[in-house]
């Protein structure tokens, strides 16, 4: 078997996905900040006509972050680490490189079409599945191409062991493929009626069945993109950057298989107190609470990987990103199951506490993991040291404070909403009108907008550091073994 030193890895596809990570991360976060300020100052909804209203921008924000920023980050990591853990190179396998390039460019075409159609208000009105049916078909093509790249690479591998990260990538590929197709089964109305918009379709399901299938998909879009995909990224870059072996292989096995079995049944907690059968609601709640075990098993495994090496937190900004990412994963995967308990859900559902839960996971866990992975890959892909350690440090603290502002304000706002909505006077009438809750939440919405702005500023610093690393940083003669030397 050839050693890593002999193989000359081809990072051209990983670089392309890194660029799209930066682009869609900035676009998605910028739109998110605009939306946050719109909630605090409603008049901002009307500055761009119909194209600037909250309802038109929100799908762009969610799709841009989930399917633009996050998937780009996962795929940049795959095209970087896949070659290394399988001991192959695209120089030796031009077909795999062709598939990877096709994967990237069709993906970019899909994202451009998604932006255009969502801006135009063309949507099938399903959470995390807004794209019109022709684009759903293109999604399938993009996903199949990733599968060909991944399983094709494994088929020609020169390493017998399938590394942990690839387990999670396989799980992401398989689960999303099945769930996406079933949730998006629809009948295009143009071909039935012969009139109307070619973009329009009707779901194959109706009523409560549609809600069940939608949240079977919706929650697992989080489970198998934000969770299993990002765990795969973390399990490679944490030991590589820290120089430490993963704490426990047995804990990895337990966490992986239990996460795969339990997570897929937790989507019912999105439809508690709805018209779906009560047993489905209870099942979703029970599996959500049990989900704490594999989630914390993974997070503890990551944190204990740093046993005896905690001094690296002080020495390496990159390790700070990775460790705080694991910490936010623990926080988010405790908070979500708590919110799924029926008595808690009665207070939390439809409130900003749910928004806070989503964002402490996405901003802290997903965002920090992708940023850390990008910083690790840069010196190796471009053979240049990171441009500025100081920028990394400042970026870390600005973004961390921004996250704290964001989720703490949303926790307070959400619990305030829930308490006001259910408060009654001595005669049993509601004590507050809905507009009363809107008015009292203004300071928390403003704090949330400030926190989001701080995170965006940190991300702009990240983009600047990446660009300067690529174009102006000192060249390295050899690949760094762990964190590269960094300029002040």
From TrEMBL:
Enzyme class: translocase
Positions of heme b 1; low-spin binding: 61, 359
A GO BP entry: electron transport coupled proton transport
Domain Cytochrome oxidase subunit I profile positions: 13-488
Cofactor binding, per record: Binds 1 copper ion per subunit, denoted as copper B.
Catalytic activity field: 4 Fe(II)-[cytochrome c] + O2 + 8 H(+)(in) = 4 Fe(III)-[cytochrome c] + 2 H2O + 4 H(+)(out)
Any one GO MF annotation of this record: cytochrome-c oxidase activity
Principal location class: membrane
Enzyme Commission number(s) of this protein: 7.1.1.9
Known cofactor(s): Cu(2+); heme b; heme
Membrane topology, as annotated: Multi-pass membrane protein
Family: Belongs to the heme-copper respiratory oxidase family.
Protein name as annotated: cytochrome-c oxidase
Source organism: Helicobacter canis
Lineage summary: Bacteria, Pseudomonadati, Campylobacterota, Epsilonproteobacteria, Campylobacterales
């Amino acid at each position: 078997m050839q050693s890593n030193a002999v193989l000359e890895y081809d990072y051209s596809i990983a670089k392309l996905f890194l660029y799209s990570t930066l682009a869609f991360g900035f676009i998605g976060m910028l739109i998110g900040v605009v939306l946050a300020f719109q909630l605090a100052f409603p008049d901002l909804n009307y500055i761009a006509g119909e194209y600037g209203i909250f309802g038109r921008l929100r799908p762009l924000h969610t799709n841009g972050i989930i399917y633009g920023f996050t998937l780009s980050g996962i795929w940049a990591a795959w095209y970087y680490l896949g070659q290394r853990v399988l001991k192959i190179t695209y120089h030796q396998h031009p077909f795999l490189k062709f598939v990877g390039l096709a994967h990237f460019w069709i993906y970019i075409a899909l994202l451009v079409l998604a932006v255009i159609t969502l801006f135009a208000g063309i949507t099938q009105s399903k959470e995390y599945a807004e794209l019109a049916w022709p684009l759903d078909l293109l999604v399938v093509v993009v996903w199949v191409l990733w599968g060909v790249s991944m399983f094709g690479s494994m088929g020609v591998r020169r390493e017998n062991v399938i590394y942990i990260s690839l387990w999670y990538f396989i799980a992401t590929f398989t689960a999303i493929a099945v769930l996406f197709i079933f949730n998006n089964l629809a009948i295009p109305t143009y071909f039935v009626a012969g009139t109307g918009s070619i973009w329009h379709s009707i779901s194959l399901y109706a009523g409560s069945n549609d809600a069940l299938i939608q949240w079977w998909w919706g929650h697992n879009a989080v489970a198998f993109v934000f969770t299993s995909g990002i765990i795969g990224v973390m399990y490679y870059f944490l030991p590589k950057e820290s120089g430490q072996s993963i704490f426990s292989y047995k804990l990895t096995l337990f966490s992986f298989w239990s996460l795969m079995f339990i997570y897929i049944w937790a989507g019912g907690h999105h439809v508690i107190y709805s018209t779906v059968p009560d047993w489905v609601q209870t099942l979703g709640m029970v599996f959500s609470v049990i989900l704490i075990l594999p989630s914390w098993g993974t997070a503890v495994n990551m944190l204990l990987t740093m046993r005896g090496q905690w001094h690296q937190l002080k020495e390496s900004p990159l390790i700070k990103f990775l460790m705080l990412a694991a910490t936010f994963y623990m926080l988010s995967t405790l908070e979500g199951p708590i919110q799924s308990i029926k008595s808690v859900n009665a207070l939390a559902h439809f409130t900003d506490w749910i928004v806070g839960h989503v964002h402490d996971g996405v901003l802290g866990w997903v965002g920090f993991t992708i940023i850390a992975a990008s910083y690790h890959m840069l010196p190796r892909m471009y053979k240049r040291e990171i441009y500025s350690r100081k920028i990394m440090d400042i970026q870390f603290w600005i973004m961390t404070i921004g996250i704290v502002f964001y989720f703490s304000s949303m926790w307070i706002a959400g619990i305030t909403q829930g308490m006001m909505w259910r408060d009654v006077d001595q005669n049993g009438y509601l004590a507050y009108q809905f507009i009363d809750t809107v008015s009292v939440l203004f300071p928390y919405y403003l704090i949330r907008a400030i926190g989001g702005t701080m995170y965006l500023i940190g991300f702009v610093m990240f983009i600047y550091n990446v660009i300067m690393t690529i174009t102006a940083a000192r060249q390295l003669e050899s690949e760094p073994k762990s964190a590269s030397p960094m300029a002040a």
